[in-house]
Write a structure and sequence with these properties.
There is one protein chain. The protein is mainly alpha-helical. Helix content is 69%, strand content 1%. It contains 17 helices and 2 strands. It has a two-stranded antiparallel ribbon. Helix 2 runs antiparallel to helix 3. It is globular. The chain starts with 11 loop residues before the first helix and ends in an 11-residue tail after the last helix.
Length: 436
């Protein structure tokens, strides 16, 4: 919804062993979250211990305990089934179906990141980085594919744009603000070279989004309505090649140059202790979680229009603001935690790295998938959205150019996000009656 950007709430020692590539989402250690205080967890543990050490049932029960009951955020899991039940029982309360689906997806996205991190412990840094790059924004990709299938192109565009804005302004701003308050006696530092590379990729993404929009609004297309789609598909293929090159550059070619500050001093002797589930179990959980996210995404997308009417909110506001805030809740918390522990490189991996993934991989990927589906998905995000993204990238790039952060920079980013949120609340989508 995961690489370093999906890193969960772990111990300080675990946070220090995150790998270098923010955008690539290098493998990260398992998150040792406090167990839920449910009475039946003790019974589950007792049953698991009563079985023989080599028993498959004991291994399965242990895996369920670790993945399902070990994270406090999983108290939100029942909201998913409630959304499905409410959808079939009433059919009228689309606002509640939307909210319950949104809340129910949040813990699933966090657990998907956990399962990916566990699998990365077995695959090594290179393959692990690619796995995290693929599953890092799996939730956004699944929701987008369902929306594309229903022809809701504007929802796809706005939700992906909202994820970028949320990560760059809200997540990064809150992390800088919290870290700055904890370390108020000095500026926090991070790897400037890595931040500059990510900023460059974000500007390249803005370039890819800008030209189809400019082509459309200047009415300078060779074939009106077709040239911008063709340009978008060509640009998307180029952006995917650029992102693949970036992964190779970060993971293989120049890995040492873009390592987090102080990484050479980190030890890895506890690596085996970080493996809480087996490789086969991690793959099985990835499959189960992805399927359940896919199911809830279908109900979520179907309820968006009804939720807009019942909650009296514009679809643009729901897509750009509400979807990303809830969907990025887990990485939001982890970014703040790492900033408070003075691990700004990990924080940038969560926030800026995720934005880079969405802009250079997920958006072009959706254009290609739409191409295959026969949908006219393009990179023309309309003038208002494109201008918002362009200004946001410039503001964040300016904040990162010194390689330092403090609570005032974080406060400015948060205030910028509030302005963006208010703008979309009063914004009327020109394509509100159509999907592009």
């Amino acid at each position: 919804m995961m690489g370093a950007e999906k890193a969960g709430l772990g111990s300080e020692a675990e946070g220090e062993e995150l790998a270098a590539a923010p955008g690539a989402g290098s493998p990260v250690p398992a998150r040792k979250m406090q167990s839920l205080d449910f009475e039946h967890i003790g019974s589950l543990v007792a049953v698991a211990k009563s079985l023989s050490p080599g028993s498959k049932w004991r291994r399965a029960l242990t895996s369920v305990r670790v993945v399902i009951f070990q994270a406090k955020i999983n108290v939100l899991l029942p909201f998913g089934p409630l959304a499905v039940i409410l959808h079939y029982l009433t059919g009228k309360h689309q606002g509640w179906v939307f909210l319950f689906s949104l809340i129910g997806i949040t813990p699933l996205a966090e657990r998907l990141g956990y399962a990916t991190e566990q699998l990365a412990c077995y695959t090594g840094p290179t393959i692990g980085g690619l796995l995290n790059a693929t599953f890092g924004n799996a939730t956004e990709m699944i929701i987008s594919i369902y929306a594309l299938k229903n022809g809701m192109i504007r929802v796809v565009q706005q939700s992906l744009l909202g994820s970028i804005l949320s990560n760059m302004l809200l997540v990064l701003g809150c992390a800088f603000f919290a870290g700055g308050l904890v370390h108020s006696d000095r500026d926090q530092v991070f790897n400037k070279a890595s931040a500059v590379v990510n900023s460059g990729l974000l500007l390249m993404a803005v370039l890819g989004l800008m030209f189809p929009a400019v082509l459309h609004f200047t009415h300078s297309e060779v074939q009106y309505g077709k040239s911008e789609v063709a340009l978008s598909r060509f640009s998307s293929c180029i952006m995917l090649v650029a992102y693949a090159s970036y992964l190779f550059f970060q993971l293989k070619s120049q890995r040492s140059v873009y390592s987090p500050i102080g990484e050479e001093e980190e030890a890895t002797e506890d690596e085996e202790d970080e493996k809480e589930i087996t490789q086969c179990e991690a793959i099985c959980w990835l499959s189960v979680l992805t399927i359940w996210i896919s199911v809830l995404s279908g109900y979520l997308v179907d309820a968006i229009q009804g939720a807009s009417e019942s909650l009296n909110m514009p679809v643009a506001f729901i897509s750009v603001i509400l979807l990303p805030i809830v969907g990025n809740a887990a990485e939001h918390a982890s970014a703040i935690m790492f900033a408070m522990k003075n691990k700004l490189d990990i924080t940038l991996g969560v926030a800026i790295g995720s934005s880079t993934q969405i802009s250079m991989f997920v958006i072009p990927f959706c254009v290609v998938i739409g191409w295959i589906m026969g949908q006219q998905m393009d990179l023309n995000f309309q003038l208002f959205e494109t201008a918002t993204l362009f200004i946001t990238v410039l503001v964040v790039a300016f904040m990162l150019q010194e390689g330092t952060s403090n609570y005032f920079k974080g406060l400015m980013l948060i205030l910028c996000y509030l302005i963006v949120a208010a703008s979309f609340f009063v914004h009327v989508d020109p394509n509100a009656t159509g999907d592009n």
